[in-house]
Amino acid sequence: MAVYAWRGRNNRGEAVQGQLDALSENSVADQLMAMGVAPVHIGAITEKAAKSTQDNWLERLTRPPVVVEDILIFSRQMYTLNKAGVPILRAFAGLEASSTKPAMVDLLKDIRSSLDQGRELSAALARHQEIFGPFYISMIRVGEMTGKLTEVFLRLNEHMEFERDVRERIKQAMRYPVFVMIAMVIAVVILNIFVIPVFAKVFAGFNAELPLITRGLLGFSAFMLTWWPLLVAGGIGLGMLVRSYIRTPAGRYNWDSRKLKLPIVGEIILKATLARFARSFALSSQSGVPLVQALTVVAQTVDNAYIGSRIEQMRDGIERGESISRCAAATGVFTPVVLQMISVGEETGELDNLLFEIAGMYERETDYNIKGLSAAIEPILLAIVGVLVLLLALGVFLPLWNLGQAAMGKGGG
Fold this sequence. Notes:
- The chain is mainly alpha-helical and 413 residues long.
- Among the domains are: 1-62, Ubiquitin-like (UB roll), CATH 3.10.20; 265-371, Receptor-associated Protein, CATH 1.20.81.30.
- Helices cover 78% and strands 6% of the residues.
- It is extended and about 100 Å long.
């Protein structure tokens, strides 16, 4: 199989171009005509040119990687193409030709090459597990087994849209608090490096005992000026140490457990994680995945080691023959209302629908809490800013006030 470069015009008369892997020029022409492209020129790329293109490491290093939004668009496109009855190889050829992102083109090309070699779609995607993730690949495998691949692509698209929406809303809510905290840190650094040392020279000429707050400010400023290289190195080293610890299984578990107990944001993280669990579990169960296998996959997709361990605890209980509701209650992370809904769904055989209801309930609560996140954090930030301004004002102006009072007393005497 060789690589062919082609140029042509699409249905709107626009000039398009790209590269395709095929056995001959006629095969390339057939693929282009199937994609609605009228070929103008088709030529084989020499081995040297193809190798130079593949080995351009600088381009590969600097080009944008495949992100969640790319996979979301890919899922929507595959749903549309599958629904229209387009063969899967032709669908991937069309996506490859229409994609403008080099990393996505390479990904689609590798997947199509795997399909050409006789692999299943799930096996081809599994070669890029760091991009698609275990849940996505497992759902595609279930879709292939049950013949519901089109519906699976639609469900995956909806699932990824929800997760992206939650992430974007959290980022939007945290943007103002993070900006204020960064501004506070910069202000403290500037004051300690440029402002307070000037006042230190002024206070040194008073030949009088300074107030405790002023001595504290001057001492902290002198400490920063003297030891700032060690402070910077220590901060970087501590950050790397914490990051390395969190990457270990025990560190990830402890950090994910403590995140759920953080004030204000802990409840949001818990509800968003449980919403992801309920939607993933419902999607897996509705697609025909056995309960034990579904919980195993969902435990890897909730993005929280602590909640994942509780889901695995549910799985172990179900393997022992216990009911889903009893296993869910033993985890200690679900509210009584949710446990009651799980119990009703288990009794009536409508667990899938009720899990979607649970996911919707957690999503609405998450949305409500996110909207109030900024309002809850702003008073705390204002209090911190007020305390810093008060300490600075007292530390700087209290000696000046005492000096003025002393001067007035001497003048009156």
